[in-house]
Design goal:
It is built from 4 helices and no strands. The chain is an all-alpha fold. The protein folds into 2 domains: 85 residues; 44 residues. The longest helix has 85 residues. The relative contact order is 0.03.
Length: 179
């Protein structure tokens, strides 16, 4: 009987290793090994996908940073332009004020202005042309007089046209010398 029991035990022992259900801890262990095997298979694919996602995110963030930098640059350049215009306006006002004060000081000293000099230059040119015309076409009664002598009527005409307007210094009258 003992032999029969031992044979049953050996048969039951061999069946117990193959037919017995595995304990839950061993299931967890095997699941972990399976996950590790799958991770090794798909690990390189997962890493490539993560790298691609990282590159896409980096490009997107760089584009966003460039856009914000461009907007900030535009705002600052607009502000700088505004400040430049204000400064230019203030400098122009200061320059105009300085020119006015210098002009007033020169006027108090009796210095002629550029406009006064231009008017006098035009007047001198007009008088020279009138004098030249009077010398070229002497009147009938002055025909007997020599060409170098200027008639009294020409001198009077020139003197009348040379009379300055009110407030100006009077011009000296020239007299003709008898020949």
């Amino acid at each position: 009987m003992a032999t029969k029991d031992n044979s049953k035990r050996s048969k039951a022992g061999s069946q117990s290793h193959s037919d017995q259900p595995t304990p839950p801890a061993q299931h967890v262990w095997l699941a972990g090994l399976g996950a590790m095997a799958k991770a090794q298979e798909q690990g390189s694919k997962a890493i490539e996908a993560l790298v691609n996602d990282g590159l896409a995110f980096q490009r997107k963030s760089q584009a966003e940073a460039q856009q914000r930098l461009h907007e900030a640059t535009e705002r600052l350049s607009h502000m700088a332009t505004g400040f430049g215009e204000q400064a230019t306006g203030r400098v122009d006002k200061l320059e105009h004020l300085f020119e006015d004060r210098v002009a007033k000081a020169l006027h108090r000293l009796g210095m002629p202005t550029l406009l006064d000099i231009q008017m006098l230059t035009e007047r001198v040119a007009q008088l020279e042309s009138q004098l030249a015309a009077a010398l070229k076409a002497p009147s009938a009664r002055d025909a007997k007089a020599p060409a170098k002598t200027v008639s009294k009527s020409v001198v009077k005409t020139v003197a009348k046209t040379a009379t300055p307007s009110a407030g100006k210094t009077p011009a000296k009258k020239t007299r003709s010398k008898p020949a």
